[in-house]
């Protein structure tokens, strides 16, 4: 059995504690930051969660230090702007019979917003050059891939590519990541070159068939920018 006296179920985000919470009737795990002051805050749980006469409470609710959970430390809404119901159970177990335990947020919006609580990473010395090259490719073809991008450089690189393309063309660009590759696409520019893209695809298919199904040469496609290739050390 878990020892009594567990505190709030919170995680550290850039040095700031954030409470893991759920909304009424929801199962997505959100983050709530600390309130600006005790007068504007609320507790991690309401006092009735510690009333043993409530039939829907979990016996494990007694494992928590109620003084800590009732302290008005937390903002009324989650990072993503929702009004939350209660702290999700942690090491002490669930607070309700039908509750759950969780140790990390699952709300995509909350996860996206926690970046602001971390310092901006130092830009790699090749950052500006790679951003310019990727923007060049997007402006010419409507899409680009940037491969081998370190995780701490991805968010800012995506922003820079979008900014450069819009400044040059006036068009918006969508970017997303998969592991270490950033994909950038501007549909407006892509559509302007649709016939050329179709011709390139047909030529590639013809080359593949002519080679009896063997893969073509390993030369990178002209829409691919390699992060590693521009290491200027």
Summarize it.
It is built from six helices and eight strands; from the N terminus they run βββαβααβαββααβ. It is of the alpha+beta class. Helix 3 (127-141) packs across helix 4.
Structural summary, described in words:
This protein has 233 residues and is α+β, with helices and mostly antiparallel strands. The protein folds into two domains: 10-117, no CATH class; 127-230, no CATH class. Helices cover 29% and strands 15% of the residues. The chain is built from six helices and eight strands; from the N terminus they run E-E-E-H-E-H-H-E-H-E-E-H-H-E. It has helices at residues 66-70, 108-113, 127-141, 151-169, 187-192, 194-210, and strands at 10-13, 16-22, 30-33, 86-87, 143-147, 174-178, 181-185, 224-226. Strands 1, 2, 3 and 4 form a four-stranded antiparallel beta sheet that branches. It has a four-stranded mixed beta sheet with strand order 6-7-5-8. Strand 6 (174-178) and strand 7 form a beta hairpin. Helix 3 crosses helix 4. The longest helix has 19 residues, at 151-169. The radius of gyration is 25 Å and the shape is elongated. The N and C termini lie far apart (56 Å).
């Amino acid at each position: 059995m878990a020892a009594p006296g567990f505190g709030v179920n919170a995680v550290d985000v850039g040095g700031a504690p954030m409470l893991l919470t759920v909304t009424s009737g929801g199962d997505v795990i959100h983050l709530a930051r600390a309130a600006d002051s005790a007068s504007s805050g609320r507790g991690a749980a309401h006092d009735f969660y510690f009333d043993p006469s409530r039939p829907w409470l979990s016996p494990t609710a007694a494992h928590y230090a109620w003084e800590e959970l009732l302290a008005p430390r937390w903002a009324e809404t989650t990072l993503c702007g929702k009004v939350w119901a209660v702290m999700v159970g942690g090491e002490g177990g669930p607070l309700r019979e039908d509750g759950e335990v969780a140790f990390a947020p699952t709300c995509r919006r909350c996860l996206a917003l926690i970046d602001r609580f971390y310092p901006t990473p130092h830009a790699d010395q090749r950052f500006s050059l790679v951003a310019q090259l990727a923007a060049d490719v997007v402006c010419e073809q409507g899409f680009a891939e940037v491969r081998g991008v370190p995780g701490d450089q991805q968010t800012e690189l995506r922003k820079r590519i979008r900014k450069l393309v819009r400044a040059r063309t006036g068009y918006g660009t969508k970017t997303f990541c998969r592991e270490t590759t950033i994909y950038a696409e501007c549909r407006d520019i892509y559509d302007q070159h649709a016939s050329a893209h179709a011709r390139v695809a047909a030529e590639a298919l013809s080359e593949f068939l002519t080679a009896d199904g063997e893969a073509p040469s390993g030369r990178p496609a002209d829409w691919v920018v390699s992060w590693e290739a521009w290491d200027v050390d």
